[in-house]
Amino acid sequence: MFRRIGQGFCGTVWASPTGSGNACALKREDGGPGRSLYNDYIMHQRVLKALPTGQSVVCVPDCYQYVCAEDRTWWDERIPRFPKDFQVPCNILVTDRITPLPEAVRDTIINLYCPESLRPSIRLSEPDQDCLIRPYLGRRRRLVRHSRYQAFSLRNYPLHLDQIEELELDRLLYARIMAETLADLYWRAHIDANDVEFVLAPPRGGHAIQPQEQLGHLTTIKSHILGEHVVWVLDFDCCKHMPLDEIGVEQAMRAFYKNDPFYPRPGRDNIKDQILWNEFKDRFLEASGAILGQGSPEARLPALWIELVEHRADTNQLR
């Protein structure tokens, strides 16, 4: 039987139980209106073709197949493997399954951040074994108000910037990785990166290679808290083609602010946040220049994007 491992606005996500063969994820189009798995498939393929290949600290799940609801051959074989309430054909995207973080990492997160009263149930919860971490470099936690209604989940656990610092994770490295990836998505794949997601998880196949000093040769990130891990990029269903002109740059700026707070933000009062934004900014401009070339007609666009992003932050502060 397929097991549900996630759910988003686009729909539910399923996988075969551990040890049943190929580790594939099946993303169903059974969520809210206005989302398209076919667009996800097209944009996903574009990203796979555009991003540098080979061992990298940044991973994109392989995209195997787009299955439409009318594909009787595919559905007749697999529909009995879904629970009864989900035995209705719909469009599906078949991709790599990202390996969840191991039990030792889950225990650490639970001990540090889970309300004490919920810890026993979270440790025994099957859904919370599907632990991926979303690194939020653009948000710190606010003061937590104690409430009788408590909730906690390890699925897509949001790790805020203050927690990243508390765990002594390399926030500057994550910022450089995101900046370089965003440059690749803009100038190589020509997409606006709208609503893409970054998660920290083990490398593909769980096998890590000894990292080198430079980011360009880095193949895994080492941490005594998270173990060896990489940054995965996924969920391209909201992405749109981005023309390489002023209109496209403004489109990308709007998408930057619509997304969850993965990226550092400019205009913050906290000196650490300012340093992080400058690290992100410098690496974005450096990576963009290497892609576009200094003499190309598009060479001015990365600096224009930075200008728009920083102007938007200044405008928001004045409101």
Helix content: 25-40%
Pick out the low-confidence regions: 207-215
Provide the succession of SSEs. EEEHEEHEHHEEHHEEHHH
From the N-terminal CA to the C-terminal CA, the straight-line distance is 52 Å
Question: Overall 3D geometry?
Answer: globular
Helix/sheet category:
alpha+beta
Number of helices: 9
Largest sheet: 5 strands, antiparallel
Strand content: 5-15%
Radius of gyration, Cα only, in angstroms?
A: 20 Å
Task: List its traits.
319 residues; alpha+beta; 5-stranded antiparallel β-sheet; 3-stranded mixed β-sheet; 36% helix; single chain
In short:
This protein is an alpha+beta fold and 319 residues long. Helix content is 36%, strand content 14%.
Secondary-structure blueprint of this entry?
Blueprint: E1 3-7, E2 12-15, E3 24-28, H1 37-50, E4 58-59, E5 63-67, H2 72-78, E6 92-96, H3 103-113, H4 119-124, E7 133-136, E8 157-160, H5 161-166, H6 171-188, E9 197-201, E10 230-234, H7 246-258, H8 271-292, H9 301-318
Parallel strand pairs: 4-10, 7-8
Antiparallel strand pairs: 1-2, 2-3, 3-6, 5-6, 9-10
Helix pairs in contact: 6-8, 7-9
Structure characterization notes:
The protein has 319 residues and is α+β, with helices and mostly antiparallel strands. The protein has helices at 37-50, 72-78, 103-113, 119-124, 161-166, 171-188, 246-258, 271-292, 301-318, and strands at 3-7, 12-15, 24-28, 58-59, 63-67, 92-96, 133-136, 157-160, 197-201, 230-234. The strands form 3 sheets. A 5-stranded antiparallel sheet has the order 1-2-3-6-5, covered by helices on one side. A 3-stranded mixed sheet has the order 4-10-9. A hairpin with an 8-residue loop joins β2 (12-15) and β3. The chain is globular.
